[in-house]
Amino acid sequence: MSQIENVHTKARELLESQAVDCVIGFGKGTTGGSRPLFVYGPEGVEDLIFDETCAHNLAKYLLNRKGKTTAVVLKACDARAVNLLLSEHQIERDKVYMIGVVCPGIKENGEPRDTCLRCGQRTPVSYDYLAGEPEEATVDAELQYKGVAEMEAMSMAERKAFWEAQFDRCIRCYACRQVCPGCYCDECFVERLDPLWVGIRIAPSENEMWNAMRAFHLTGRCIGCDQCERVCPVGIPLSLLNRKLEKEVYETFGYEAGMDPEAAPPFATYKKEESLGFGE
Amino acid sequence: MARIGVFICHCGTNIAGTVDIPTVVEAAQNMPMVVYAVDSKYNCSEPGQAAIRDAILENRLNRVVVAACSPWMHEKTFRKAVASAGLNPYLAEMANIREHNSWVHNDKQAATDKAIEIIKMAVAKVSRHEELFPKALPITKRALVVGGGIAGIQTALDIANAGHPVVLAEREPSIGGRMSQLDKTFPTLDCSSCILTPKMVDVMQHPNIKLMTYTELEQVEGFVGNFKVTLRQKARKVDHAKCTACGLCWQKCPEKVDSEFDLNLGKRTAIYIPFPQAVPPRPVIDTANCRYQKYLDFTAEGREGKAPPKCGICEKICPVGAIDWEETDELITEEFGAIVAATGYKPFEPGGYTELGKGKFADVITGLELERMMSPAGPFNGEVKRPSNGEHPKEVVFITCVGSRDKQRGRTYCSKVCCMYIAKHAIMLKSHDPEVNCYVFNMDVRTVSKDYEEFYEQAQLSGATYIRGKVSKIRQEGDQLIVRGEDTLLGEIIEVPADMVVLAVGMEHSEGAAELAQKLHISYDVNGFFVEAHPKLRPVETRSDGIFLAGACLGPRDIPETVSQGSGAAAKVCGLLSQDFLTTDPLVSVIDKVKCAGCLLCQDICPFSAIDSETLRDGRTVSVVNESICKGCGLCVAACRFGAANLHGFTQEQLLAEVLALWE
User: Predicted ipTM?
Assistant: First the structure.
């Protein structure tokens, strides 16, 4: 059976047995491509698709279904998002059924996404059921951190100029936040009036504050799905910023978010040999 | 509307010498919401405090800034002064213009400008202060003492005599600790057991003391006044309620193993009491060595081959049927208001000093081994004999500072008691056998307590030769050891033939000290000794409220000092337990249930385990701070992405107001 037929069979089985109330997967888009599809009964499972247009990270939708039983179709990066949410106690493991799919690499407008070119993880790290044939992960740090080295090579002044130019385009639509599985505060700091961390006007200083704080709040938590960059209407290379921070975290703490829901996040652990960066 | 008063202190010339006070007063008068600003020679003096009190009443002030020293110094003083005028004490704020300013700058202009800015920030912050109220919590009036050496015994007895119930937990089968292994004690040469045993018996018989031997501390939850402690009663395989201590079992047990109490110089049986005066005088079965237990394990695991012999003699011979093979470790949870750690030390293991040949030459022994030899109840019945051939030694060399004051081996500290116990050994050896010659290689001799110098002189008069210098090598020649060392006073290398060499090993932290410290949430230093709250002024307290320390777990101590610390810790415990309620500091963290998304990171981060979770009626799980445990460190505030955690007295609004004040 093909991968999507396996997904159909599994989804039908889960809905018929009432093991879950809903299966979140991909459906055909109205203007071509794909869209998220919520299937509530066995009659809808045939509408589920999976192909190289299925770009969305469906893990985010689990946040709206807290306490309800849900199955969700997950690519490799999406499964890491589920692990992140599990480790942060946002969802319950026994309420979520993880249908893993082996990802062919996502294409946009017929071209492979940069993210997917860099990614060596075709098979999800965690799943309850794997619809496709598992593939070995390939690790290529150089590819993974592509662009980061170039940024690191810039002088401080160049780097500042580079990011100022990027953030200057930001219209603070917050699409990056809305799509991110790790951004789930009930009240975002940018919307807080007292204290007013970020001014409301669209100005370089406030834009920088937003983008810097967004990235910092995700440090050690970004699972690299790059949905933020995908949805950014003005094309800010947010993935570059995220990957720089993840590289720092990996090099300092040996930690990658979402790989193991049981692993203690670097914030919550202390090892004697850790560098404090001062007083040494 | 805030009506702020600013009180600027000269601190004599401490501040006024570097800061132009009139300029600062004038600047303060013009700050927003400040209705009154004045200077004083000493704000902390009685007239200074009275001036604050009067100014609050006259000017209807509702916030106060005291620009003076560090809050560590006088925050409490000024809170009291503010409270005496009827204001909530937490509506006062200190601007530190001394430690943070006048003491560290020379430029008067710059220091004046900086003082103004520091005050400006404090004014902005205090305008956002809220009234805070301490809470009252009940206290469990019971104490736990961990460790049944002389420190723990003294602590337990003193607390119990004050009328509070005490549990004394000891991990060995008997209390008594290291002191029970000693023969005589310096500088009075009274017999260690003779002075210790009555105290051990007092512990056993005291109506307020519950003795739990063979018991280890498993887990500590809760906080000062309300600890919940889980203790592991290790399986003894002997029902102590039935046992009458007749002694038949340990006389008849056929399995002989090295005695830990006698430092492997003697033997004990597998069912044993560690020494004749053990308290409680009830045996335990050492399951690792018991023949019947080996047989039981063999059959239980269904192993192949020949089964070990089925012994069980103790069970057959026991007249009251106290042997219980079914007994397993038992976890017991009890509540306490205070905990005292009195876990002592272990002697330094000198194997690393290869040049001294411990382990290689049988006649190289440690000071504690010599104690066991000298002890009339010891393995040699009080006769000092050479382990190599059983003869009485005539030439005895002592080597001091083994494992102490040795930077190269990373052991920097002085173990404090070795100089004195060597003097004692020299005197005692001479009294055992007047023909013995003692030589003491030493770095210098430290005799810093009452009657110690006289005792050292007594050792010299008894004939001991003190040689100032270190030993570089010990080698065997015939049946003698040749100790090669330097006499630094003569400037010569000398060699001393010896029948026996005694290493004056130092004190080391006890086994498992770090693990215990982690369970109790107290600190320990690089040497593994526990850290007191203040080395001079709070020597038996820790930074964790309700947890106290006594004896050699803090560092090398002799018996008099250990006993005084035991009594000191007991006094602290009694002070705590004599209160009916505890008031908590309101400067603690609080978590906004609306903003909290329940990632629970704060629980992992909190160094005091002060954060629990709670499920709300809408099904959301959020973090909740236990105000009586929280120390107000603010780690949760820094870690919280949602901005849900906030620290009373240092709220995000207050801190931001401070920062923004700098740009105004």
Answer: 0.88
